[in-house]
Amino acid sequence: MKILSVNAGSSSLKFQMYEMPEEKVLISGVFERIGMDDSLYTIKVNGTKIKKEAILKDHNDAVKILINELLDNKVVNNLDEIKGVGHRVVHGGDKYAKSVIIDEDVIKTISDLASLAPLHNPANLMGIEAFNKELKVTSVAVFDTAFHQTMPMESFLYAHPYSWYTDYGVRRYGFHGISHDYLTQTLKKELHKEKPNLITCHLGNGGSISAIKEGLCYDTSMGFSPNAGLIMGTRSGDIDANILPYIVSKANLTLDEVVNELTKKSGYLGITGVSSDSRDVEDGIKQGNERCILAQKMFVKRCIEYIAKYYVVLGGVDAICFAGGIGENSITTRQQIIDGLKVLGIKLDNEANNIRGEFKLISSKDSTIPCYVIPTDEEVMIARDTYNFLSYQ
Ligand code: ADP
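Above: the input record for the complex with adenosine-5'-diphosphate. Below: its predicted structure, written as C-alpha cells.
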C-alpha cells in the first residue's frame, strides 16, 4: 500500500512515499522557497538525486509537480495507487492525544489552534489543503504535541494564576513528539520491555529531552512554545520571564522584537556570535574561540541538568538515547554529556561512540544505564499512523 508522508512548512514541503507495511521508501524530496523567487525542488528516486528549478507560487504548485514526478518516475502508474497521505501538524493543543483522520472539523480545530502555533499550523494547513485538492484519499494529521498529552498536571502546568490555564490554555505542550514517540517505540523493542522508563534526547537545531515513565511521556523540556528547555541553534531555551520587560525597556525594543531575538538570535548563535550550527561551534572550539567554548559548555550543562532531573523524578531509567542532527552526529557532544553523568554510574564506550548517524549502543558494558544513538525517523511514524487507520477501515 502506497502512502505519502508530508511535512509542510510556510515555504517548504518535504515528502516521502512509502510502500507499507514494509516501510520501504519509494521516493523522497523537498520543495523549497515556495512563494519566493528561485524556488526549486529536489527528489531522490532509484538512488539518484535530482535538483530542479520550478515556479512554485504556492503549495498547490508543489503538489501538482510532485504528482507529475510520481507518474513520470513510475513510482505509481495511476493516482488510485496512493491510499493515504499523512501530514505532520505541529500543534494539536490538548485536543488530540493521537493522530486523527482529517475532516472539516479537524481542519477547523487545527486552524483554531493557530493562536498557539502561528508560524506552523497555518503552514501545515496549506499542505493539507493542497493535497486534498489533488488527491481524494484518506488524509491523517499526526501531531507533534500528541505524544506529550500523557503528561500529568504536575508536569505540564506552570505556577502562574490557574485561570491562565483554564481561560487561555497556558501550559506545557511539548514538541518533537513524533520523534520522542519513535525513540520510545524503538527502545521498547530493543529492550524487550513494554513499559520502560526512558530519557529520550532529540538534539537538533531545535532540541528537547523527554522523560518517559512506563512507556508514556511524563515530562518534556519544551513547553508552551518550542522556545523552552534546552539551549538550541538560535533559541534561548529556559530563561527568566522578567528579562523580557527589562530588555523591552533597556534596549528600546518592542515585545515582538525581544521574542524574535530569543527565538532567532539566541542559543548557539547568540552566545558565539558566530553560528547556530554545532559544526561551526565545534570548529570554533578547535580554533580556541572563547565564546564557542562557552556556548558548548552551556549547551552540555543544560542537557545534563535535564537528564539528571528526569533520572531522579522517574526513579531511575532503563535507557537513555540520543537523536537529531547533534545527537546522531556529534561524537564530542555525546561524550561530554555522558561524562557529566558519571555520578550516576553511566559510562561511555569511546570506541562505540565513534560513529555518526547509525543505531548503536554507545555505553560500556559496566555502565549502570545503557545509552544509545538512534537515528530518528519522523516520516516513517507519520506513514505508520496513516497506514494503521487505513488497515482498520
Ligand atoms: P532540525 O531541528 O532543523 O531538524 P537537525 O536535526 O537537522 O535540525 O540538526 C541540525 C544540527 O545538527 C546542526 O546544529 C548541525 O550542526 C548538527 N549536525 C549535523 N551533522 C553534524 C555532524 N556531522 N557533526 C556535528 N553536528 C552535526
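Notes for the reader.
The chain has a mean pLDDT of 97.
The radius of gyration is 21 Å.
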